[in-house]
Design a protein that fits this description.
By secondary structure, this protein is mainly alpha-helical. Helices cover about 70% and strands about 5% of the residues. The strands form 3 sheets. Strands 1-3-2 form a 3-stranded antiparallel sheet, covered by helices on one side.
Length: about 525
């Protein structure tokens, strides 16, 4: 019984504890809820106060902005009204000026009409006088024919012949005097003479070296390059686009292609394959691809280095690449990149002497032959193609015109064009710059000698100094001293008009008298 009472007491105690906890929690909730409501109310009041302050500030700002905009609008309206008034005033002035011009033109029309009437009257009088003069001239001609015993046509022919001979002699003397005077005053007149008289340019030549010789240590390597059933050489030709000629030439293989860049890629690839010793189709493709990448990087590097050396900035990357490709192109054995650098330096010097922009001249000189190294091969002269490339990559019009006009394909519109043209001729014509095919060289010398032999009185001709001088021997009985001067001038003009040659040709006419006797 006591145990039961104890358990009941414990149960009541637990119930009491639970009730007390619930009551405490309720009281705490009511307390915190009341405090939270007070805080919310306070925060709302503060927010309303702050919002009211912000609203008033914004209203003030809006009013100030409105006043400012209103003032600016009024200022704009006033300025516009002033401009309109000024325009209206100018219009009225122009209208009055136009009315005055109309009146002036009417007055001039009346004066012109009076002048026409006077001129027509004078023309009638002139016609009458001409008729009288023609009748008098006819009577005088009849009298002269009767006195001289010659007809008018015969007398005219004799007079014309004598005048021609006299005119030729005086013209040659006058030409020599002018040339002597020009030589003496060359320093003073250099700028004018250089720009106005340089009209010739060396003709374009397209003789290119299309074969590269690859030397090997022994003929045993030829078999390895050819490979089983020719698979290695076929793979190499397909990868490089170069024809590989393996013949009986000892210790040599020929690489034939019109593209010098592809020939260089083939040569370097073949060298690396021979040195490495592993020659098979897969290895060939790998080496050719690697060599091609190296060559492309080298081309860009050469173009950048050339532009830096010459002080040319702002070139398009594609133009830099084309400049680098010039390293692998030659003309008559003259490297195209070296030729372009030489033309650029010469153009800058000449432009400075003439008071022009040397940087533009140097730029045009470097780019004048970029039409020779395009990625494709359009049917255009290289000067026109180079001009189009320069225009495509936003070069200045002066530079583009100088590129296109350096072989007279387009009209020259700037002073840079004749400068680049003559510097191109100077670079190609200087001694040692270009090599010439033996057959064409011999033919040019023969043509020089035969051209001079066509003139009467010429006994012998000699082309000397590699065709830079032509000596003409004439008979003293047939050609006088004055005729010798005339002959040298005519031969020079004919060579200049009919022949193509680098630089200039000196014509020396030699007239001598020999007295021969024998002692017996």
């Amino acid at each position: 019984m006591t145990l039961l009472m104890t358990q009941v007491s414990l149960i009541y105690l637990e119930i009491f504890v639970v009730l007390a906890f619930v009551a405490g929690a309720a009281v705490a909730y009511l307390f915190f809820n009341t405090a939270l409501k007070k805080k919310q109310k306070k925060i709302l009041e503060e927010a309303e106060t702050e919002a009211e302050v912000i609203r008033k500030d914004k209203i003030l700002q809006a009013k100030e902005k409105f006043i400012q905009l209103k003032a600016e609008h009024e200022k704009y309206i006033n300025e516009r009204n002033n401009k309109l008034q000024q325009a209206e005033q100018r219009f009225k002035q122009k209208e009055s000026s136009l009315n005055q011009r109309i009146e002036e033109s009417k007055r001039k029309e009346r004066e012109l009409e009076e002048m026409r009437n006077n001129i027509s009257h004078q023309m009638q009088m002139v016609e009458k006088k001409n008729e009288e003069l023609s009748k008098m001239h006819k009577r005088q001609v009849e009298q002269l024919e009767a006195i001289s015993g010659l007809s008018a046509e015969e007398a005219k022919a004799q007079l014309i012949t004598s005048l021609k001979d006299e005119a030729r002699t005086e013209a040659m003397s006058y030409i020599n005097e002018i040339m002597d005077e020009a030589k003496m005053t060359a320093n003073k007149e250099a700028k004018r003479i250089v720009v106005q008289t340089i009209q010739r340019v060396a003709s374009e030549s397209t003789v290119e070296n299309a074969v590269t010789v690859f030397n090997i240590e022994s003929d045993e390597i030829k078999g390895r390059i050819i490979g089983r059933e020719g698979r290695n050489i076929r793979a190499l030709e397909a990868a490089t686009g170069v024809e590989i000629i393996v013949d009986d030439t000892p210790e040599a293989i020929l690489l034939s292609c019109f593209d010098p860049v592809r020939r260089e890629i083939a040569r370097l690839s073949l060298h690396q394959l021979v040195v490495d010793g592993r020659i098979h189709p897969a290895r060939i493709e790998e080496v050719v691809a690697k060599t091609q990448k190296q060559i492309e990087e080298e081309i860009v590097e050469v173009g950048k280095r050339t532009a830096i050396d010459l002080g040319i900035h702002g070139l398009h990357p594609e133009l830099i690449r084309l400049v680098g490709k010039m390293k692998y192109r030659s003309s008559y054995g003259q490297n195209l990149l070296q030729h372009s650098r030489e033309v650029a330096n010469l153009s800058a010097i000449m432009a400075s002497e003439l008071g022009l922009n040397p940087k533009l001249a140097k730029r045009a000189g470097l780019l004048h032959d970029i039409g020779k190294v395009p990625d494709d091969e359009p049917e255009l002269p290289h000067a026109i193609l180079g001009m189009k490339l320069a225009e495509k990559y936003k070069e200045k019009p002066e530079v583009c015109n100088a590129i296109g006009a350096h072989h007279d394909e387009v009209e020259m519109t700037t002073l840079l064009a004749p400068i680049v043209q003559v510097c191109d001729a100077i670079s190609g014509a200087r001694p040692g710059a270009r090599r010439e095919v033996v057959e064409s060289y011999i033919k040019r010398l023969k043509d020089l000698e035969e051209l001079a032999l066509e003139y009467p009185g010429v006994t012998k001709t000699y082309a000397i100094q590699a065709g830079r001088e032509l000596r003409v021997i004439v008979g003293s009985e047939q050609v006088s001293d004055q005729d010798a001067e005339k002959l040298s001038y005519e031969i020079a003009r004919k060579i200049q008009d009919e022949m193509t040659y680098p630089g200039q040709v000196k014509i020396t006419v030699i007239r001598e008298t020999r007295a021969v006797n024998y002692a017996k």
